[in-house]
Amino acid sequence: MIYRNGAFRLAMGALLLALTGTGATAADQKMMFKASDVHPEGYPTVQAVEDMGKKLEAATGGRLGIQMYASMQLGGEKEAIEQAQVGALQLARVSVGALGPVVDELNVFNLPFLFRSTDHMEKVIDGPIGQELLDKVSNNPNTRLIGLAWMDAGARNVYDTKKPIKSIDDLKGLKVRVMGNPMFVDMMNALGGNGVAMGYDQVFSALQTGVVDGAENNPPSFVFDNHYQVAKYYTLTEHLIVPEILVFSRATWDSLSKEDQALIKKLAREAQLEERQLWKKVEDEAMAKMKAAGIEVDTVPDKTPFQAAVKPVWDKYGAKYGELIKRIQAVN
Ligand code: GTR
Predict the structure, then answer these.
(1) DSSP letter, residue 94
(2) Ligand 1 centroid to 226 CA: how many Å?
(3) CATH of domain 5-153+242-283
(4) Which residue, 49, 75, 113, 173, shows the most beta carbons closer than 10 Å to its own?
(5) What is the number of the ligand 1 atom nearest to the C-alpha of 199?
(6) How far apart are CA 278 and CA 45, in angstroms?
(7) Is 156-241+284-330 the same fold as 5-153+242-283?
(8) What stretches in the chain show pLDDT beneath 70?
C-alpha cells in the first residue's frame, strides 16, 4: 500500500520538516518572478527591470529573481495586465495609456498636453503626486495590482506612411493607431484624424498592410520596434507625455513577507531612476538612427492649434481631475 512506499514517506517527512521543523513559510520559497515587456532586449524599460532582477537575486542570495519575457512574448499590454491580475505573471511594465482603462485615476496623465515637458513629468512622478497615484493602484482591491514605479517614455509624436504632417490640417482623414484607451481615440478624432485603438502587438503589420496610415509614439519605440521601416514621416507633435508604469501582481504580492515587499519596492524605485538615464541616451540614438535612415522629421513650430483642438477631450475627461490637474500644473 501507498504508505509503505519509502519515497512517499520521505517526501511527506520532508514536507513536514519544511512546514514545521525549520519554521519555513511560503515567504521563504525560492521564486522566479515573470516579467513582461512589449519592447525588445536592450530597450531601457527591459534593461532596468532585468537589472532590478539581478539586484533582487544578489540581495536574497538567489531566493528571489526576475525572468524577463521581452518582445511581447507573453502578448500585448492588455494581456500583460490581465495576466498580472490573475497571478500568471508578476511584473508587467506597461504604458499608463494601457492601464488607464483599469485604473481610472491614472487617466489624468493621459490628457494631451498635460505636462509642459518631460522634465515637468519627471518632477511629478518623482514627487508626492507620483506616490499618491501608485498608491491608488495598490489600494484599490479591484485592480488586483500593486503600483511599484514609473518609467520615462518621453513625448509621443505622430508618424505615417502617406505624407509629411506640417500642420494640424494634414492629419485630416488619416487613420492613426492609438493605444487601447477611449481617451486617445477621442484625442485623435479631435485632432482631425481617425483614431483606431489597437494593441501594440498589431501596429507593425497594420502599418505595413495599410490597415492604418499612421500611429503615434516616442522615437525609441518608432525606431527600435521597427515602425520606421514602414512609416517614413515623423512629426514632433509631442501631444502626449505619458509615463510607463511597473505593476506587480497582488495575488503573488500577498504571499510575500513584508521584508521582501519592501525590498522589491526599493529596487523598483531604483529601476525608475536607472531607466531614466538609459532613456535619454536611447532617445538620442533613435533620433540619429531615424535621420540616418532617411525618415523625414518635421517639427510643429506652433502647437497652439493642436492644443486648442483637444479641448473637447479635456472637457469630457478632465473635469473629474480638477484639483489634481491644478496641483500637477503647479509643479515646477
Ligand atoms: C510605447 C510604450 C509601450 C506601449 C506602446 C503603445 O511607447 O513603451 O508600453 O504602450 O507605446 O503605443 O502601445
Answers:
(1) E
(2) 13
(3) 3.40.190.170
(4) 49
(5) 13
(6) 9
(7) yes
(8) 1-27
For residue 330 the three cell numbers come to 503647479
- 207 Cβ contact partners less than 8 Å away, ≥ 6 residues apart: 161, 177, 214, 215, 227, 230, 231
Gap from CA of 200 to ligand 1 centroid (Å) = 7
Tens-place pLDDT, residues 100-159: 999 999 999 999 999 999 999 999 999 999 999 999 999 999 999 999 999 999 999 999
CATH architecture of the region 156-241+284-330 = 3-Layer(aba) Sandwich (3.40)
Query: Please, what is the angle between helix 44-59 and helix 258-292, to 10°?
Result: 150
**Ligand 1, atom 2, residue with closest C-alpha:** 95
Q: Which residue, 103, 105, 88, is CA-closest to 142?
A: 103
Q: What is this structure's pTM?
A: 0.91
Which amino acid is located at 13 in the chain?
G
For the chain, give every domain's residue range: 5-153+242-283, 156-241+284-330
